[in-house]
Design a protein that fits this description.
By secondary structure, this protein is α/β, with parallel strands linked by helices. It has one domain: Rossmann fold (3-Layer(aba) Sandwich), CATH 3.40.50. Helix content is about 40%, strand content about 10%. It contains 10 helices and 8 strands. It has an 8-stranded mixed β-sheet with strand order 3-2-1-4-5-6-7-8, with helices on both faces. Strand 7 and strand 8 form a beta hairpin. Helix 6 crosses helix 10. The longest helix is centred in the middle third of the chain and has 23 residues. The chain binds NADP nicotinamide-adenine-dinucleotide phosphate (NAP). The site of NADP nicotinamide-adenine-dinucleotide phosphate (NAP) has 28 residues, from helix 1 and helix 7. GO terms for molecular function: oxidoreductase activity. This is Retinol dehydrogenase. Keywords: Oxidoreductase.
Length: about 300
């Protein structure tokens, strides 16, 4: 499936994770529709594969800024460069993400899922603020429906969303501690945080016409799923991947939410592929949202 994209010449989009499975297709599709795409890439060789995909005739529509989005300094530098270069941003797709199989800390002392799967999205939503508002941007956060259910094998029983208890948390560095660390839950919690912060930010963005929505792209055969397939099922990896969506199918959801004229003005929604879906009640809790924004702001103020 390939998404039908309207003509978007004179639009600027920031797409993260554009060197990977879905992001590469999101970026290339937007570029083919005339959009100028900016991305932040930590590996220049991987950025070259994106350049090869779009072809020399389209290279002038791609701007690659070097940086590791899990690092505060890199994110802030990239955001400053983007705001200096682009007066308006019309689309922001926070797509970069990863699942880490063990407990790792970012260079800023934050657990890696928090750093990459949450703070990178929060950081760009808030540090590209002026350009997003001037562009009346559509922000699309690529989340994951694992935020509704952390069980990897769902043969019986009720969905088990991740916990998000910020009551005694005074620093995001205290989230997902080493003791009792479960990688998959840490990943899902970070996605829940992204959706929660996105809901909270819709209120301040609304007067300027900026929308914030989140998506679950489906289960898609990209790099990230190799690690997510439980060890016991890895001998069947090839078969399992065949049953998954293609990266193009997965990319279609974010592309639609970012560009479909019928979705103009739609904000504060979570789309599970084609349909609006619910997220855990805690993501709508105003006190949790406030605390999360306060902690996140403090992280970037250091
Ligand atoms: N695949 C699925 O079934 C699925 C389901 C639900 C949600 N998602 C979400 O979809 C998004 C896209 O993932 P994908 O499936 O397309 O996986 P992918 O192929 O592994 O792509 C991940 C992208 O994120 C980038 N990235 C990772 N760490 C980064 C860092 N520190 N700084 C900058 N960029 C970084 C990667 O860059 P490099 O090229 O440098 O590695 C790559 O471009 C993720 O947010 C993921 O959580 C995926």
């Amino acid at each position: 499936m390939t998404a039908a994209i309207p003509d978007l010449r004179h639009h600027t989009a920031v797409v993260t994770g554009a060197t990977g499975g879905m992001g590469q297709i999101i970026a290339a599709t937007l570029i083919n529709a005339g959009v100028h795409v900016v991305t932040v890439a930590r590996d220049s060789a991987r950025a070259d594969t994106l350049r090869a995909r779009i072809g020399v005739d389209n290279e002038h529509r791609l701007d690659v800024i070097a940086g590791d989005l899990s690092r505060r300094e890199d994110l802030l530098t990239a955001a400053r460069i983007i705001e200096d270069r682009y007066e308006q941003i019309h689309i922001l797709v926070n797509n970069a993400g990863a699942h880490f199989p063990d407990h790792r800390m970012s260079s800023d002392g934050v657990e890696m899922h928090v750093a990459l799967d949450y703070l990178a999205a929060y950081g760009l939503m808030t540090h590209l603020d002026a350009s997003l508002r001037r562009g009346r941007a559509r922000i699309v956060n690529v989340a994951s429906d694992t935020l509704n259910d952390t069980r990897r094998i769902k043969l019986a029983g009720k969905p088990r969303p991740p916990s998000l208890d910020l009551t005694h948390i005074n620093d995001l560095a205290d989230l997902n501690p080493r003791t009792g660390f479960v990688p998959f839950e840490a990943y899902t919690r970070a996605k829940l945080m992204t959706v929660t912060a996105g809901y909270a930010l819709t209120r301040s963005f609304a007067p300027d016409g900026v929308t914030v929505n989140a998506v679950h792209p489906g289960i898609v055969a990209t790099g990230i799923v190799d690690d997510l397939i439980p060890r016991s099922l890895r001998p069947f990896g090839t078969l399992i991947r065949r049953a998954m969506l293609t990266p193009a199918d997965g990319a279609a959801t974010a592309l639609r939410i970012a560009t479909d004229p019928r979705l103009a003005g739609v904000t504060g929604r979570y789309f599970n592929q084609g349909s609006v879906a619910v997220t855990p009640p805690i993501s709508h809790d105003a006190a949790v949202q406030r605390k999360l924004l306060t902690l996140s702001e403090a992280h970037f103020a250091r």
